## 1
Amino acid sequence: MTIDPAPVVRPKNAEPWRQVSLSGVATIVVASTVPIAIGLFAMLLGLKFELALLLVFLPTQLILGVIAGRKFSGRRGQADAILQVFVVFFAMTVVVLLVSVVWSVIERGSAAISWQFITQNNVYISGSTSLEYGGLGHAIIGTILVVTLSTIVTVPLGIATAIYLTETRGRTRSTIRTLIQALSGLPSVVAGLFIYAMFIASGLTQYVGWAGSLALIPLMLPTVTRVAEESLLLVPQELRNGALALGSSAWRAFYLVTMPAAKSGLITAILLGIARIIGETAPLLITTFAANNTNYNPFNGSIATLPTYLYTFIASNFDTAVQRAWGAALVILILVAILFIAARLLTRPKTAKKAGK
Amino acid sequence: MTELIAQDINVWFGQRHVLKDVNLVFPEREVTALIGPSGCGKSTFIRTLNRMHELIDSAGLAGKVFLDGTDIYDAGVDPVDVRLRVGMVFQKPNPFPTMSIKENVLSGLKLANRKNDDPNGLVETSLRRASIWNEVKDRLNDPALSLSGGQQQRLCIARSLAMDPDVLLMDEPCSALDPGSTRRIEETILELKDEMTIVIVTHNMQQAQRVANRTAFFLAEDGNPGQVVEFGDTDQVFNQPVDLRTNDYVNGHFG
């Protein structure tokens, strides 16, 4: 007997698990289109969209799904169909909500966006001033300064805490972990009030950027610590043992083996921490206040940030003011998007980068 | 050359006594095999020989381990120095995933903050001693995880050898490997034993007979702590065991 060693071209139907009979396809098509048709028909008869969706579409979809599921695989298919209908329905609800939030910000915010809007500041601008004048450049700078200052303090602190929780056998680990969890439930306005009472009401300082940064630290710390801790816990114990068995000190084993292995998780921890505080309003209003001028110095004088800028204009009666606020919301969204894209690029696995080269 | 002596080793995890009164001598230039059924404390024991045992949270220990006459558990002894002299290869290959093959071999130097004048030479010698050089010499900069399981284990052996330890501890190094890789690791052990003291935990009776000069049989009966039932020349332990239980175990009547 001769054996042909050459590979064979993959046939089109090399996925036997995907086979669906014609009647199966027909059942699925019927089961998923009929409820929509009935729902639309109910709306034609004058039923409101929400009612048609919940009282007509959802029940018919459930019934037809169950019938179709039964036809395919009996009782198991029935339960499967019910779950599928609910999961898809609620997932779509959430997707629609999310998309509509983002869309409304983009739609109304884009009208305000212009080069002058993102570069100029708010001096001599009131709620009724035309959109051709002024902007939130000072607030972008303020946000970057205040958030950077918080990050510089919080990231080393948070990651050091995570290291203490995962890499050591300190006796106070469980206490610290509980405290960090409790901290994540701290209302942001309380953090702001605390700093306000301590530094501003007591007369130690005026409204100032660093006070805002200080108020943001307890908000950012739990996020950074928790995510960093999780990512360090994912590093297998065998790697640490391997390093220690080679005669490494605990610190070098962490620095050269554990930390590189957890790198992407640690970067995610930092970025999620920043995303957590970038939109904080309440603690900043009572610590930095909202300046109109551009202030490059977070250690002297009141400073504006994007959320406080948004807050000053959103409650106004003037359309132009409200448009400014929407513009600020869009700028915050864009900043967060840039951060997350950066995170994706930074945490791409090594192999993927090699393939790209 | 170094002689390793374990004296009256007792081990606890929490309140549970898992190893009792272990007295073993590991002469230099010899391979000693530790055999016995699962859960009898072989792996626990081998970890006491380079102070990896104490890294477990609830670990407890009494007894002494003499390395060249010094007790490694003496108050003044740094565990880092002990581990530099007593290398260890684990059951599961654990190459560092973020490093290349070459970096893995040199990782010990980096981790111990040591310098070497000829790193490339060291990489080649270490990989040759672990008999993996021919397979990887053209792709030293590839990630270590691109190797097969058997190659990863030999890379881990090379990584330990690069530190030039006096004693090499191997905790079931072949349990996850195919017969081909197992044979190569056994050949490596036989070549290495002229240069260092080797202690190997194994579940494979044939392997113990092929590589070990001496064999210790561990047994934990009915929830009692593990003890050494028999210790002597491999030939004697397998062919004329003194203890009946050793005879049953090595002939496959239980375990």
## 2
Amino acid sequence: MPPWTEIPQVSPFESLAVKEMRGEASIQESRISIQDVSVHYRKFRAIADVTLDIPTNKVTAIIGPSGCGKSTLLRSMNRMTDLVPGARVTGSIQIDGQDILASSIDVVDIRRRIGMVFQRPNPFPKSIFDNVAYGPRLQGLRGQALQERVERSLKSAALWDEVKDILQQSGLALSGGQQQRLCIARTLAVEPEVILMDEPCSALDPVATLKIEELMRTLTADYTIVIVTHNMQQAARVSDVTAMMMLIEGQKTGTVIEASDTKTIFTKPKDKRTEAYVTGRFG
Amino acid sequence: MSETTRRRPQAFTRGNGAGGFRLAWRKGTNTVMLALCALAVVAGVVPLLWILWYTLRQGIAALTPGFLTSMPTPVGVPGGGIFNSIVGSAITVGLGVLIAAPVGVMAAMFAATRANTPLGLALRFGTDVIAGVPSIIMGIFVYALIVLPQGHFSAFSGGVALAFIMLPIIIRTTEEMLKLVPGSLREASLALGATEWRTSMNVLLPAALSGVVTGVMLAVARAAGEAAPMLFTAFGNPFLSFKLSEPIATLPHTIFVYAISPYEDWRAKAWATALVLIALVLGLNVLARGLTWWRVRKVGSVTR
């Protein structure tokens, strides 16, 4: 092989792109492959037999009526369901060929590679700088490298211009929309591969919502995004692929009933229930 | 909207038939009960005020200017003070905090994140049991544990006894404070790839810090006033000592020794020492609660 294909190992967290250049892996169409996943909370089955492929560098939206398990599905992707006592996830969730539900997996590493932004902005009660630097500091970054990482993350989250002079102020002093962008910057700072967003705009005003939707589109260049939303218009605006979830007939368990590209879901859905939901007949 | 049945408006005059007497009776009962409750509050507060007042009156007489800074004098010699007791209390309580605070905070961090597991429940139960053990039994326990093997009384054993007494208070308040930190902060930290330990140390504990400090202050206030364990461990010392391996004087123990003595001037000094101790304990309690109140006013909640 030509010498210039020998890429020196720069970090322990090798990205798929580096591996692909070396010929050790091929960037697959789907970043996350979910197969027959069910989640039980003690005796209650929240979601059943979900099979879904999350494509790389695209925005995937998970929509559906309240209580059908959208958040549960999202949280199972980065093992946040482990935090609920009595939670059990069966099936397999493959990322780069590894099943993250296996017990041998390092959960801490998974959560770094798959970041999450929550419904209500939850910045730490620290300064703006310390909020964004929290993740990189865990990885051992210090000094100049840390400063650069923080600045890069804030710029990617479209927040740098607004906060570059007030980095030492508390993160809680920002407005709701700014706090959510701070949380996004904080997630970007650990350089994840996938960003999961659990109804990120539901606590924000329309102007802030629009800013974050624009942000999502620019972020797809480097990241894979999965967003749960109960706002159908948002899903139609922002996503490339949409998965429709609904409760199984007569049960309290949810599942994915249809998933394809957004245009098809909203114009020619295959399932009658999807059609009823997206046309607003119920929801 | 469903139809509401319309009722003819009633005249709100007093003594209006059957309604009037019932209403007056209820109002009367209300007033009487409120008065009884107020009386109960007064009955609870009066003894406290009376103790403070009485101690102040008795103690202020023997409180000479050099009382806090001079050493005890032999019986009958005027002057003298309790400097060695103050130093001794500071050393034993300080040692107790040094032992109990790290252990207590770490135990509370563990219990707060595993609240409903068997180990977490066992910890909470164990803490409550230790909190209920009489302090004299703590003293005897430390006597058997440290004093007997060492063969002498020591300030070290006194500090250990106080640590055992402070431990359950610190664990309980720290655990409560940690539980008050919003769960979303813990989730956010874990979602960034932080371990449980890092999350507890770098996010939860700083957010709950002021509450934890308050808990430690309350524990100190409690331990500073414990006399019974000192009888078996620190044992008291008429001379000034800074050594951990020797017996040491403490404020409550000195009160005990002076109060039961047959000498008039020593009994007067006991009152003065009691006044100093009450001022210390009361001051710490008021400071701790004042800090909490100020925190709530400033930030809107007990945690940051």
## 3
Amino acid sequence: MTGTHDPTLPSLEDALALGLTRAEYELVCEKQGGRAPNQIELAMYSLLWSEHCAYKHSRKLLRTLPTEGEHVVMGPGENAGAVDVGGGLVCAFKVESHNHPSAVEPFQGAATGVGGILRDIFAVGARPIAVLDSLRFGESSSPRSRYLLDGAVAGIGHYGNSIGVPTVGGELYFEAPYEHNCLVNVMALGLAARGRLVRSAASGPGNALVLFGAATGRDGIGGASVLASAELGEQGEGEQDKRPTVQVGDPFEEKKLMECSLELLDRGLLVALQDLGAAGLTSSAGEMASKGGVGLDLDVAKVPLREPDMEPFEVMVSESQERMLCVVEPANVEAVIELCQKWEVGGAAIGEVTAGGQLRVLRDGELVGEMPVAALVDECPLYDLDPRKPEEPIYPPPPAAAELSYASPPRELLLALLSCANLCSRRPLFEQYDSIVQSRTVRGPEQADAAVLVLADASALAVSIDCNGRRVAADPYTGTVAAVLECAANLACVGAEPLGTTNNLNFANPEKPHVAWQMTESVRGLGDACRALRAPIVGGNVSLYNEGATGPIYPTPVIGMVGRLPDARRAGRLGFAFPGDEIALVGPLRHSLAASELAKLLGEPLPDGLPEIDLEAVGAAQLAVREAVRAGALSSAHDVAEGGVAVALAECCLIGGLGAQVELPEGLWEPAPLPLPPDPASRDAVPPLLTAALFGEGSGSFLVSGDAAAVRALGERVAVLSIGRVGDDVLSIVEGGALAGTMLTLTLDELADAYASLAELFS
Amino acid sequence: MKFGVLQFPGSCDEVDALHAAGKVGEAQLIWHGDRDLKGADAIVVPGGFSYGDYLRAGAIARFSPAMESVIEFAHEGGLVLGICNGFQVLCEARLLPGALLANANLRFTSRLLELDVVRTDTAFTRACAPDSAQAGRLMLRIPAKHAWGRYYADAETLAAIEGAGQVVLRYAPGQNFNGSLHDIAGVRNEHGNVFGLMPHPEHAVEELTGGSCDGLRIFESMRSAVEATALA
């Protein structure tokens, strides 16, 4: 930089306002050959050097993750990863977040989140076949949570239902740390014939660059930098101002765009394809050029506009939805435009691939900006984290439910858990989604632990999405391992083996040492668990700065996992199916109340650490259950998760419409070493062992039902404990042995009433 | 027996309808811009959000070139089935009486429903047989999924269609979540060759993915009606 500043050029202050640091601005000047960038160049650098686009605080960590495996067809770096699912097909999948837009405007934020992830899937040439969503809001008692929930669910439904892609699963938690910064993560899956996936690398100097889809407007300007890469302010304050940075979605436009893209690929008319998401044309053009090692000339005057007087920088950074960018051989341009006309989407050649490594922006042929592609896309400085485990608890204890304690009658505790917002039935939510369009859904919401989608050869895909942020907050390493294992357990319950994993790492401000520590530990757990399961990471997303005025969110590495089962007809079910079936617990029983749903209900502070997980024992239990389900030996299989064995039993009863008579043997429970809460005085009573047995949580155990011979056969492979029989219309749990006595008896109607409490949030 | 399944920009369930119709006969898609119905013996106007359902559900699709041919086809006595958005299109095209309004709960709702078959002497229900498990009750289990499915007609029209026996399907007691008048789930025209319903029979053609095969009865009925006409 020189001492004198050209007054027609943006200043350092302008760069700071766009989110760059002083050092980054100086580096930009250096990359620009020692001159200050003009307005359009600065706008483009500020976006591509934002956390959202450059992953500058996470890239080094992500490099430690396992990304290779026998099923992986396309790994991280493309619009979506893909695994081979047999039968000549590959499945492309990815999860992405739209957290800050949804916190500002939940309906459009969530809707465009669905639109964005679907474009990622068809950008690689796969037809989207399913959507799952992972949602986090503040406590359900908060009016803001209800507003955000209602808006986000309506937005997801509005987009997903209208475009003809089923929403087959998801998860939803309410926790105070998400009050100001909700999480809306959406996962999508698509199918393509093997060998037909398309990459995004631009190639062939002289080839045309065609932009197709919706016209470009002034919406979403600054979304990636201003909105996604900074903390949210006080609730209300500033959020109104940020509303124009949220894009507005049009599912009908996207539906046409999707059909058009897939037909263009089908007819072999494209060299490369890329969707336009965060940072719009800047990011799409930059990434296509960078991956192909080429340059691009791009004329903003040729971009079809919604508003006629847009400045070149506005055209380059607009985040208008429902647009795609492709590279086309000159001879095919006419055919591409014709096909766009058939689908009634706009299409225009806006530039061409060049041999130099420069991204040049023109207006009517006049050069208005020029940047080296490598500098713009790949040379943003990466930062080391400064992880430090916090000495004091970061999160205040949750509000305690009145009139409950560890000494309360088990029946009251079970009803309180079944009706709490985190565990009650999701029916009022998933009924707002089309889960059956495309006729592949063999298991949808509440029918099994994972969604199951049948393929043409009668095999099936299974998919699950999960993360318990509270457990990750208690222990970022073990909590993340548990989230990965939970996904794999869900797959095992339908008989599927994991093929690959995607993740959305939702964390707070990475520049703070305690958040850096959460990230570092969590990613270490993610890598270890995926390696142990042979379920490599094929793609994902990072969402940082999820932090409002009241503090950071729970660290929430949302895990999505895709698996395969050979015979769709044998996909496992969740609910009890036949009166007289034996009920058994399978796998390691190391349950503890640490960071459990019951502990939350009772207002316990988070413990410092979770019991260690025996990955080998959990893996063995999952394998045994998976194979028993595949063999058709079991009537039902459900993993024991939040709320422990008692809630798992109640869910199997409710979904199956059958009761269960259960006797828990004395001395069954091997109490897992329980880390003490930071402040022992805050506990009014040590939980009775039986309360821990009923409601304790831990990875690796399953609740199955089947005929006695099948349960016995399973017991030859893995620890199995018979605990009762399916039948009648009550759930009764008695304590066996010397202390024999009834612990609880509840009718199905009583259970159902408690389980139906979510409807209140939508009224 | 050849089914033609219309495809508009924004159709979502046309492939499902193609698959269902393909189980009982030949089936092919007809692009919204084409006037040629390709010799179809019966037409299915499928579900989805034709033209984004902007303006009003089905209001734009009724003006498409393919619909012009379908209207002519219907006036000549051809069988036309409208499912969900297709039902809305047929009402907009005045091939069927009444209109579909926003659900009473004002939300998109997706649910597997029980439907009572009001009569089996129609071209769309003649293959429905009493269910022995339901003590002879004529019932179909078919999913519905829509935001605008509340059947409405003014009192005079309602009396007329009830009097003429045009109501073919009703939501079984307790199943009418959208608030349809007279629990009407499916209605035919006076002549009996055009039928629309909000539930999705094409999503109940296989146990594996539908949890019911009852939807097939609708397509089988249409085949049977077409074959009977051909013989006559």
